[in-house]
Write a structure and sequence with these properties.
Length: 226
Amino acid sequence: MCFSATASFGSGMLLSAIGVASLRKVRTGNRRLFAAIPLLFGVQQFSEGFVWLGLQDSSYGWIVPVCAAVFSFCAHTLWPTVVPLSIMLMEPQAERRKVLQWTLAVGVLTSLYFLVCQLSFPGTAMIDGYHIRYVHGYPMEFATTVGIFYMVSTIIPHFVSSLRRASLFGITTAIAYGITYVLYNDYIVSVWCFFSALLSAIVYYILYPAPTHILSGEHNARHHHA
């Protein structure tokens, strides 16, 4: 969270609660990863809370590199793979799954790129006003391409999915990303993740009540196996 340690920890607690509630509503394994998204966002926000603490109090300074690395891993490396994979696992239509496989492939490549960069170019974090600025030494010549890949893997799957209301997540994420890029470009990692974390409530909205066609597909699958 880009405003304070209190905001980060408060958001982390709220998101974790939403994640637990979402997971409790899940009755089939193919929906668990999607239901866990708010919980993962909670971990991400808790990690930034500790970054705030370490930057504000030198006695906790040792925790900054660890938690900044966790935050950057979540923000950069985790989501490009988790988002399309979670959508693909829930998709009942074979043709749509094939398209989602392509978005997953883009996401995996993006995640691998950021993982290599994170291991090769350890970043730093600093307080800049009411925000945390994360500075990385990633190769700038690939920034535009990687940025496009990131958006393709984290936004497009929601529009490909036949899951009812999934497009709402994609639309809101795209709007949040656009606002952050225009108004908070220097703090885009931290601030955009703040907006995206708030979208976790939509995960619960999508999963409960369960979309009718998903339930029908699960019922038909059980009937077929029986």
